[in-house]
## 1
Amino acid sequence: MTPSPDVSPRVLEHLETRVLEQLVSGASPAERTALGLGLTPLADGALMTLGRFGMVRDFNRTLGLGTSQPVTDGVLDQLQALGRAAGLGQVMVGVVPGAQGGLRERLLERGATPVRAWLQLWREAAAMEHAPSGLDIRALQDDETETFIDVVMRGFGMPPDLRPLGTAVIGQPDWRHYLAWDGPEPVASASLFLSGGYGWLGNAATLPQWRRRGAQLALIARRVTDAALAGAHTVFTQVAEELPEQPNPSEHNMRRAEFQTAYRREHLILPTAPP
């Protein structure tokens, strides 16, 4: 009998941090300086910062706090100081189930406010079929990097200054990238990162006029299958939690692909002003 994979916060938060480490290290020193891009170890977790775009919560947030040791007031003092040093007025703090040290309560005492939670979703890495989409799913070729970045940027509606975040992981070991094509037109993108038997899915962007045609389901199936062929046992990703007033098509796609919830990660916005 195959043992169940470890999809605990201790494991998945560490792997997600590795993804961000690769993103930060893949940017040039000049790009990191221009964007205020960094990933700083903090207790048993890390703080990612993108100081030039402080309003972008996805890139100004913590990971892994309280997964293996209690969070102290000293850790939160350090977190706020790091945020201020990066020019941020606030940071988004992830609170995983069982976070040690009463993290949520400590954050509330410092004036933090809850915002939309994220879900860590996972499924077994195995050959996966998908409904025909009429699109051609292909691994990225060496001469298609600019095409890939263009789809990512346009699909996510990212400003040109954030282009280094797209290029940073191209060509790095353990990364694979894909495009969905409608004839000669590239219409959707996706990436797969492999580490220690796990595969992480990201960079899932579709150009507006090609949405609702099954591109991302097809890209999910290709990456899950490729992860299994590469020896992975588990595939995971993060999605914003669907709310009645905020539906999330990304979660719908993952559920259709038989992903299940590993855990729910609460988020609280913490002012960086000292208490």
## 2
Amino acid sequence: MANHMNTADTATTEDVVEVLNDLLENSRDGEYGFRACAEEVDSPQLKQVFQSRSAECAKGAAELVQLIQRFGGSPDKGGTVTGAMHRGWVHVKGSVGANSALSMLEECERGEDAAVARYRKALKADLPADVRAVIQQQAEGAKRNHDQIKRLRDEMRSK
């Protein structure tokens, strides 16, 4: 595959790999976080929503791994420390009986707020058009995830 990084107005290959690895960590945080919520929540409806979101994040991570490798980079392993702390908090809530659907949705919304912000930051980077297109598509997915979780949270609060 041709390297599209030779133009003077685009970021270096290392810059592109760095942006992609940041989003890869973000995607893995989402995958693991949604899976943790699915394991803790009692509601079959929410369990399905969380499992579906986890699968979507895993799919996004796989796309990012392919791009990172295409640019000659090494995909980072795992997620972020913040993501691990978030998942730990979800499990703590579950173990002390605070795993209400509302608390799980609130935790997921916090995670999705962070994801949307990371995608916004990535889209400000000077990236090749094909990479930008993948990131834009994933950013829209993160926004849909956020909006769905927020809507479910709002419904839960009004009950």
